[in-house]
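Input set for joint prediction.
Command: fold jointly, output tokens.
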Amino acid sequence: MRHLVICGAGTGGTVAANLLRKRLDRSEWSLTVIDRDDEHYYQPGFLFIPFGFLKREQIVKPRSKFLPRGVEFVLAEIDRIDAAANAVRLRDGRTIPYDYLIVATGTEIQPAETPGMLDGWRDTIFDFYTPDGAEALAAKLKGLYGGTIVVHINETPIKCPVAPLEFAFFCDDCLRRHGKRDRFNIVYVTPLPGAFTKPVASAVLGHMLEEKNIAIVPDFNAERIDAAARVLIGFDGREIAYDILVTVPTNMGSEMIERSGLGNEFRFLPTDPRTLRSKAHENIFAIGDATDLSSSKAGSVVHFQAETLAGNVLRAIEGRPLEPGFDGHANCFVETGRGRAFLIDFNYETEPLPGKFPFPVIGPLPLLKPSRLNHWSKLAFRWIYWHLLLPGRRIPFVPARMKMAGKKRPA
Amino acid sequence: MPQKTLANAAVDVDAEGYLTDFGQWTRDIAAAIAGEEGIAELTPAHWQVLEFMQQEFKAGGQAPSIRKLNKSGVISTKKLYELFPGGPAKKAAKIAGLKKPEGCV
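tokens >
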């Protein structure tokens, strides 16, 4: 019997288990998935909790429910991956040997990386990247009379790079609907030179911030926070005052990756950007947020990586050359408030461009432009996530590789 | 591809002025780019950072992040901002003759 082990039963680990269980002979291969808990959150839902659009219980299901038959699900904390011994060592003393390993342990927020951030944690400083944080923020926002809300990205890369923008747009929308917008300032603080990484989308989204009277502070790198004075202090000496700081703290990979000696400075696993194999070990692969890839850390990206990953694990097992199949494709809905959303579709080489998706001219979804249809598609995505994405089924009309058809480069 | 004259030499650059061929880089060109970026003089402390970045680039094909510079013990992030005011990772990469740090998409 040979062993395939997957660390992590989030989006990446679950899709990988579903694709590979079908293709590996059960009499020859065991498949083990390890995670520390049995709660699978639909993470795009976190954004909606602070505004009361969704409740925690609406976005969580058992991880085990989405793993196929023929997979052993081990509930345990991983101490480390012992790559020299081809084994995963668990905190409880057990050892799980592997022939092939898939790392899918994601990324976590690290508020302790910024001095002072924890001093005001969930008092005046909030995150919405965890269910607890999103719920605490919901309670806080409800009771606010007025003041300055600073939406802040501490350091890149972060999971779902557009989420903080969506948060700012929702804030504006919600306050407006409650007739309170004039009592609030919303400030968007980012280490990037603009609203987004790439120029075309950055210009469009930057304009959108302006329209909604959201001030942007670009190129800001926080050195520390004075929580008592409620001031964010930059390395360049700039100071930004807030009443409520909604921050996306530094994102880092699992501490287990560092204990294993496998990570880069962010504890992300150095991974080949096209084949998804570890750069250091031939029998280790990685998917999703746990990798050091420059593609977005997002569920759609995991979906597009999954086919390449599963195919390449099989190729490696059979001793065939790997296929450089992943092109960095991401496809994200960006909520802009007032019942509308943007859609952006891009990859390693092509930045988000305007146009139509998935078909040229007829669309029906407009790219890089707010539309109600995009908003409804985003809401429908929750169903697609549980029923198509996690089981590793194809999503109709959305190919793994990005297509240029329908996209227009502005003059 | 755009060309630019720096320190009396013609070099190939991208739209944002980053060198596209590291083979054309010299210490004089570095000083010229530094001048354009508002750094009057490259001190030994600057050079320590620039040389570390070039080593990292040769090893991994990418300019290192600020976090990596900090973690490697070469320089603290605070000091890095003093040496390269504004966007240190991008400025230092430009002066070192490396391509623009990729960042996330």
